[in-house]
Design a protein that fits this description.
It is a single chain. The chain contains 24 helices and five strands. The protein is α/β, with parallel strands linked by helices. A five-stranded parallel β-sheet has the order 2-3-1-4-5, with helices on both faces. α14 crosses α24. The longest helix has 21 residues. The termini are far apart. About 5% of the residues have low confidence. It binds 2-acetamido-2-deoxy-beta-D-glucopyranose (5 copies).
């Protein structure tokens, strides 16, 4: 009676199994009460690990290329809300502000080191960051700051700790407003070992120029023609358009154009494109939470942000649809007409329509919802 015997033995363990199951359920319940997203996150982490697959390529390097007052801090924060990322905020500020023609090679060398989690080999970089705490280079790397603050405070400014933390992550992100697209995209050629993807963030130049006229941005903006001289800025954007057409043709998998207005009006749809471009099958939960909490003004968030030492002008908490469009109520029609002349190429290529009457300016959004079509037809005609 072998069968009878073994089933009898099995039954002896039933009380223990029941006990263990109850303990496990109680534990899980306690965790789930503390962190309602725990189970969902755990499942997501497992599926992300499964989806990694082609790990031979090593970490992904994402460069966000943009200009002053285009929403680049917002997009930077959106990108660093993706799990398992390390974010570098404006490392090129270290070279000079703005980065001059003679320094583009240095800029690319520096970016290569930053992407390779090798800031300890950049002479003077961390001491400079520590000396200029007001720029908050590391504080704006939110995950890192959380991590290093848990330990001794001065560990945050320890280059080898920055590097070792950076190396633990699957994706390294750099944001810059200090390189034009041509200089940035040359990284593909000068540093082919990088596993590089470039995101080019565009905003209607009429909107970003309007925003630059305001204090405190206007203070530093004066020193940089890219920021303060609309003619110079528009000419540079037109040059970017040519480069962008080439990249869209040659490297469609490594180059993406995102418009700030699309993000403001349709944060979820636009972010979906962004995460797909980065190779994720669906929008991570953390990114969804970021969008829900950062694309609208909530209560006294502005005050709260200020007490953390961040000037509201640079904060990413705002009603994004108001901010994106407010220039239309603020700028004189004459000024708008002038900028439309300077920036004609970019407006056409990026699907921003010109305004010919004041009433249209004040009341119509008037940009092409399908940016891809606008760019494609611009590129094929030029
Ligand atoms: C690597 O990627 C290629 C192309 O996307 C795919 O066909 C292949 O199955 C992947 N390999 C692994 C191990 O996931
Ligand atoms: C930088 O170089 C470009 C082209 O090489 C030139 O048109 C531009 O005037 C230069 N800018 C400065 C500030 O030297
Ligand atoms: C960091 O950069 C230095 C100097 O360029 C180089 O010798 C070293 O191999 C780099 N380390 C890593 C881990 O890339
Ligand atoms: C910096 O951090 C490393 C570990 O990441 C540690 O070995 C080293 O002693 C630290 N240096 C200082 C000056 O604290
Ligand atoms: C943001 O502003 C728009 C336009 O006025 C408005 O429709 C929307 O409800 C606002 N969103 C929030 C969350 O306040």
């Amino acid at each position: 009676m072998q069968n009878h015997f073994s089933s009898y033995r099995w039954r002896r363990y039933v009380p223990f199994l029941v006990f263990a199951t109850v303990v496990a359920i109680v534990q899980l319940y306690a965790i789930a009460i503390k962190d309602p997203h725990f189970i969902k996150n755990a499942i997501q982490t497992l599926s992300n690990t499964k989806n990694r697959g082609n790990e031979t390529l090593g970490p992904l390097h994402v460069l966000l290329v943009s200009y002053a007052r285009t929403g680049s801090s917002f997009v930077g924060d959106l990108l660093q809300s993706v799990p398992d990322t390390f974010y570098h905020f404006e490392p090129l500020h270290f070279i000079s502000n703005p980065v001059l023609n003679s320094s583009f090679d240095d800029a690319r060398v520096l970016l290569n080191k930053v992407f390779n989690c090798n800031v300890s080999s950049i002479k003077g970089y961390l001491p400079w960051i520590q000396l200029h705490k007001e720029y908050m280079k590391l504080k704006r790397s939110l995950n890192y700051w959380k991590e290093c603050s848990k330990k001794k405070k001065n560990l945050c400014f320890n280059a080898s700790f920055v590097d070792s933390t950076c190396r633990k992550h699957k994706t390294v992100i750099v944001k810059t407003i200090r390189l034009k697209l041509r200089e940035a995209s040359e990284l593909f050629l000068t540093h082919p070992n990088l596993n590089l993807k470039i995101i080019y963030l565009m905003r209607d130049p009429r909107g970003s120029i309007n925003s630059r006229m305001k204090f405190p941005v206007s203070m530093w903006c004066k020193k940089d023609p890219m920021c303060s001289n609309p003619k110079y800025y528009c000419d540079s954007l037109a040059e970017d358009m040519k480069v962008a057409c080439g990249l869209l043709k040659d490297r469609p998998e490594d180059f993406l154009i995102i418009r700030y207005e699309d993000l403001a009006l349709d944060p979820f749809g636009t972010t979906d494109r962004l995460v797909k471009f980065l190779g994720m099958p669906s929008m991570p939960r953390d990114v969804e939470i970021f969008l829900k909490t950062h694309t609208s003004v909530i209560g006294s968030v502005r005050e709260k942000y200020r007490t953390q030492g961040v000037d509201y002008a640079y904060s990413t908490f705002r009603n994004s649809s108001i901010t994106a469009m407010s220039w239309r109520q603020q700028m004189s029609f004459k000024r708008v007409t002038q900028l439309q002349n300077y920036c004609q190429t970019t407006l056409t290529g990026m699907g921003y329509y010109p305004y010919y009457t004041v009433s249209n300016l004040r009341s119509n959004v008037n940009f092409d919802k399908n940016n891809d079509d606008a760019i494609r037809s611009y590129c094929s005609a030029n």
